Structure formats: structure tokens, C-alpha cells
Amino acid sequence: MKLNSLEELCNEIEKDKKSNAPSARRYPVRFVFLNSFKSLRNLVSCLGDKGVNLTELSSYLPKEDGWLTSDDIVNAVKNIRQDTIIVPLSEILRFFNKEDFFTVIKTLSELENKDNLRLYIPFVGLLERFEKDFWANFYRKENWAPVWILNEPVERITIYQVNFEAKNITGKETILNSNEWLNLWKKSDIMKVISFSKSLSYLYRNFLPDALFDLKPISNQKEYLETFFNAKISVEFDDDESRFWDKLLREIMLWDVKNLNLESIFLKHFNLNSLENLEIENYLKLYMDYKDSFDRWLLKNFLLHYEKVKNSYLFEVFSKLDRFDDKTIIDLIWFRIFEADPKEEFLVERKKLLKILHKDLKEPIGLIESKLEEKLDSLNKLTTKEKLEYLTGITFAEKRYIVKILKDSPNFSKDLEFIKALYPELYYYLNWDNLLLEHIEPWVLDYFRNYNISKLINKKSEKLEDMLNKKNKDKNSFCEWYYKIEKIPSEGKNLIWVDGLGAEWFPLIIYLVEEYGKGNGKFIEKKVITRVNLPTVTDCNRYETKKIGDLDKYIHDENPYRYPDDLINEIEIVESIVKKILESNLEKLSIVSDHGFTFLCQKQFGNIKKLDLKGSNHEGRCMWIDANSTYQDGEYFIVWTTDANNYQGKKSLVALKHTSLQNTPSREVHGGATPEEVLVPYIVVSTAEEALEYEINPIKFEVSIKNPVIEFEIHPEPRYTPRLKFGDIVYELSYNKDNSLFKANLKDLKTGTYDLELDIGDKKYKIGVEIKGGFKERDLL
């Protein structure tokens, strides 16, 4: 029966109660179909006024978020003995499947009456399903009690069923459990409701849209944000990342801001105003600053959806990032290049990112070294220049690799220039050109050039052997060069004694002092290669000052000498010593040393045990003897009377070449008379009161491509070694003291106009050069 108002419905209910029709008296259940909770509330009120009891099915729930079975419902209804309206059965049946839906209604409709009982069961919005799934198949519908249908507008309600763990949203109509769901009918003006009930989440699969409710499942946090905050998050949801989405959801709920997208979320979370000034390195620093996995997850996903960085190496790295610890990101930045397309842009960016990690942020290298060695070995088919593109100069493994490149190089001079920017310390260790030294014979520089290269390649050069055999052929030949070289001052103000600092380190020290000293006005006032007393041991060459013993200690601890590790470590120790010296507040200081070392006395360099002079020390490089000893100068040692310190007049045997007096050493040693043991640097470092401005004359040149040589003066005399460069090319500068001219050959440049840069300390000057062709083409007649 269709009725047009609640008043008509209530009147019809009252008439039915008085009816004597057999079907009315036999069956107590009356189904009432409504289209709104408002009508349900009014019906409850109307029947209450007529003395009808109210039974709420929520009171039968086993717990707050429990549920009722078919039997629970039937048993609750059939045990009622007074006229009663039972609510809200429709909110339970909505979640029943077709079979259970039919069974419950059929069972209730078959209940028979006692004492003209009335059991009113309102259904809200379920008329269509009732007719389809039950009434159409109900065998007694012609002889059953009346079914009342109230014609009224539908007040639809959307239910958002949240099917994951989530917190309530402030200001939204919510259902936290099934008890609240069964009491929803009591609330007015409801259009949307969010359900967090676990029971409903489990049951919602049987829910079918009807006249009243439209159920929309919210399967995850992303859908939640998109639905309730109108967020546009272009990140695919992954169940494994649910914890991050939880945190993002909580954060956006706290902000209570709508219409966010991934970019605005990123900016707000990291407290940034704009993306405009952010470079790739800023994203890496941000990632390393924020250690929480959620912060890093958010940053990763933003970058992977940010168009501006899609062609970057960092994007390539983040695309493979599956863990958010420091080790994973550092490993990927180091090693992804070996799997990805090694584009030039990737290689350049990778170097920049790694320097940020390890130079700026001081991140430890960790276990990078061994894996990096394996990866570098895979580059063997590349040219030297291509190999170096993979290197940063940061790790020990890379330095070993550079040494290997130079050792195996078929074009040593060219490859040495390639490594200059990458490993400048090794480059300057090997570079004995243009040191602008006075009062030193050329053979000394040539000797050490060959000595340092021999140490680099771990092989004594024939030229070095020939020079030593000539210069140290016997005592006379030794003394001839030994006494020509200035003796190091044993006294002076502000002496800095570096134990074991031989002349092999001279060019590196010059570079390091100028490089680290220019920022605070430190410059080299004087630089000389000097000699020490024989035997070349500390006791004969002491200074009345505190010594820096780091280098000497390291070399004495070698057991055995390890190639190339010890060379690399020694370079780092020398660099550390220079830095320490330059931190001094002294306006003027002098770097001195007591002896050098030699690595060439080991068996692997052709030295065998030729002498067995028991009582020798310093691993056979010298031996103290009695004044009346009968030893004579020979091929392998000389008899020497010391004229220094407390050993004045004392005699010793001093090894003349690399053959020692007794056993063959297994490490670097000192005490003998080879140039590398005898000669040491003497460097005076001063502090400038103010920075100098230099005048370069001329500053513009026109030269022929046949002879692209430029010469110029620098006034006043430069405190630092001038360096002329064009881009990455650094040109050798020679200096003629007679005419005070610096000279450079620009042989790598083609015809054209160039602006070269001349660096003097931290001052930079521009030199213009036009290189012209060797002839002009004549017009053809």
C-alpha cells in the first residue's frame, strides 16, 4: 500500500491494529518502507505516542564493533511480546548477501501472531531490493499482512567506508564502529558519513547501492586524501609504503588544507617558499639533513614526479632507491653510473654530488672502497680521459687507480696532465718543472723527477741508476756535489722541524703552501733544496725546536713497504702537515728537516745482500765505527767523520748507493748518502700585511700559429707561482731570471681569439691572445 504522508501512514497503522481480517490477525510483522531517516524518526515518534515500544537492534550487539547474524535478528524479534517498532533492521540487511537477505525477511514474515501483536519493521531505502530479492519470490504475498510504502523524496547519504587503519577527521560525520552505524538514523541533516568500522569494512563487499545510500570504499590513504582533501598526489599507492602514507595523512589532517598537490605538500613539509632557486645539490643536502624515512620517502617521490629533474643523475639514483638509510643513497650515487647510460651530464653531476657527500657533509666512505675497485677494473677498455670521468679523487681506491693509470700509461706526460685537476697532489709531487729555484744544479731536479716517477711506478728507472752510479761512484764524486749544495740552517727563529721530509716532497710542498696559504696571506719568501749532515739520521741533524714526527713515524712503521698504498698515504700525511703548519699564527716561519728516505733499497729493486757488516743500524744504511777502525772507502760505502751535534768527530760507515751494509731492507729507510736521503727542503713562509695587486705587461698578444709563444712580465715579483690556463688546460710557465720574463707555449690552441686566465695566488688576470694563421690565401685570378 502506497501512502503519501506520514499522517496517512500513522492512520493506516492504527486502522490495521483494529482490523479483524484473518491475515492481519495471523501475522504480527508489518514492513514499512521509507526514504529518509527523518521519516524513520517521525515514525518512531508517532508510534511511541500510540504506546508502541521501541527495540533498538544495537542493544543486541556483542560488542561496540560487533555484528548480528540472521539468527540473532530472528531470535530478538520473535521473543518480543508487546507492540514494538524494531530499528534499524535495514542498516543490517544492507550488508547481507542475497541468500541471507531473503532468509531473514522470510523467517520474520512467517512469524505467527499471539494476542493481535504488532511488530513494525521499517526499511529505509531498501524497497527496490526488497521487491527484487524477496517479494518477487515470496509465495504468500497475496495472503499476507499489509506492506506500507511511504511516497516521499529521497534524501541520499554517501557512506565512505575506510578500509584501512586511520584516525578520525575532525569536523566530519563519522562512524567508528557498528554500534554508531546502527544509531546513525537518530542524526539529522546527514549527507556524507565516513565509516571507520572494521566490521563494516569486512562486510561492505555485500553492500549494494540503494535509494538511500551510496557506498564508496576508501581503500587506502591516498584515496582518503583525494576524497576528503581534494589532494592531487601523483604517486602510485603501494601497500609496502602504507606507513609513509599514514604519516602524510596525519600531517595533512593537521594542516587542514585542501587542494594540495605533490609540489605544495613538498614545499610545506620542508618549509620552503619556492622551487625556483633549488638546484640538484640542494635536494641531496635536504635528503641528508632529514634522517627520518618518511621525509626521505616524500622527497624521493617528489623528485620522481618533478619534470625539471627528470634528466638528472639524481633522478636516476632515486628511481632505484628502495631503502632510506644513508648507506643506500651513498652506494647508489657511487655505483649507479656503472649500470646507467654514462652520459657526460651524469658523470659531471655525480662528481658534484659525491663531493657534497664526502667533502661538505663529511659522510664516511664506509665499504665503498673494495666495491669501487671492482667497478673501476671494468673500465679497462676506455681511454684514460674516459676513465678519469668516473673518478672524483675522494677515495683511496680512486687514487690507487690513478697510480695504475699512470704506471701503465703509454703516454705518461699527456696522462699526467689529465690527472692534474683530479689528483693535484700527485701531479705536483711528480712535476719538477718551473720551480724557479736558484743555486741548484739541473741534475738534482732531474734526479728527483726520475726518483718520484720511479716511486710512482714502483720501478727504478735506468736513468736514475745511471745518475746515482755517476754522482755516487765514490767518495770524491759524492763530495763534489754534496758540498756544492747549501747546508740547511740549524738555527733560526720559528723553525718548524718536519722529521723525515726529504727533497722528494719539494714540489708538492710548494704547491700545498701556495694553495692553502693564499687565503690568509701566507706566501713563500724563500725556497731552497739543502743538504743535511751524514749519516742522515736524526741524531746528527737535530734542531732546538719541537718536531712534527707524523711522516717519520709512518715510514718507520712500514712493514713491509706497500705499493702504492704507502705513497698515497705519505702524500696525505704531507698535506696534513702543511695544513697544520699554515694554521700557525707566526708571521714568519721556516720549514726544515733532518733527513729524507729512500724506497729503492729493497730487494725487489735489484738489491741483494752484498755486505754483512754486523752492528750497522737504520737497516744497514750506516754504522758507527771506532776512530782507529781500518775500514776504507769503497764502492758501496764511505768512511765519514761527522761534524755535527754531539757526534762531532765521530766516524761512521755510510751506504753510498742503494745497497745496504747488511740485510736488505723491506721498507723505506734513511741513514745513507743517496740524494733522496741527503737532500731536504728549506722553505721560508711569510705573511703578507696586505694583498698585492700585480701588473701584467703586456696583456694582449698577436702570435703566429707556427710559433704560438707569449712572453710577459709580472710586477712586482709574484709571491705565488703563476698559473696560466684556458678552461681545463693549464700551460707550463718558464721563467728567465735574466730578463724577468715568463714564457708559455700555447701549442694546443688553434687560430682564433682567446681570453686566458693568469692566477697568482687568489688574484686572477685576463690575458688576450689572437693566434693568426701562418699565411694568407691569395685571390685566384
Shape: elongated
Strand order of the largest sheet: 1-6-2-5-4-3
How is the biggest beta sheet arranged?
6 strands, parallel
Overall average pLDDT: 91
Overall radius of gyration: 46 Å
Task: Report the strand count.
Answer: 27
Structure summary:
It is built from 29 helices and 27 strands.
Could you walk me through the main structural features you see in this protein, from its secondary elements to its overall organization?
It contains 29 helices and 27 strands. Residues 776-781 have low confidence and may be disordered. It has a 6-stranded parallel sheet with strand order 1-6-2-5-4-3. A 5-stranded mixed sheet has the order 12-18-14-11-13, with helices on both faces. The chain is elongated, with a radius of gyration of 46 Å. It starts with a strand and ends in a 9-residue tail after the last strand. It is 35% helix and 18% strand. By secondary structure, it is α/β, with parallel strands linked by helices.
For the structure shown, list the relevant keywords.
single chain, 781 residues, six-stranded parallel β-sheet, elongated
In terms of topology, how is this protein built?
Elements: E1 2-3, H1 6-18, H2 22-26, E2 29-34, H3 37-49, E3 53-56, H4 70-78, E4 84-87, H5 90-93, H6 98-109, E5 119-124, H7 127-133, E6 147-150, E7 157-162, E8 174-175, H8 178-181, E9 192-195, H9 198-203, E10 213-218, H10 221-228, H11 242-255, H12 262-269, H13 280-289, H14 293-303, H15 313-318, H16 326-335, H17 344-360, H18 368-377, H19 384-388, H20 396-407, H21 412-418, H22 424-430, H23 442-457, H24 462-471, H25 475-482, E11 495-498, H26 506-517, E12 522-531, E13 547-548, H27 550-556, H28 565-582, E14 588-592, E15 622-625, E16 637-641, E17 651-655, H29 675-678, E18 679-687, E19 695-697, E20 700-704, E21 709-715, E22 723-726, E23 729-731, E24 734-736, E25 741-745, E26 752-760, E27 763-772
Parallel strand pairs: 1-6, 2-5, 2-6, 3-4, 4-5, 7-9, 7-10, 8-9, 11-13, 11-14, 20-27
Antiparallel strand pairs: 12-18, 14-18, 15-17, 16-17, 19-21, 21-25, 22-23, 22-26, 24-25, 26-27
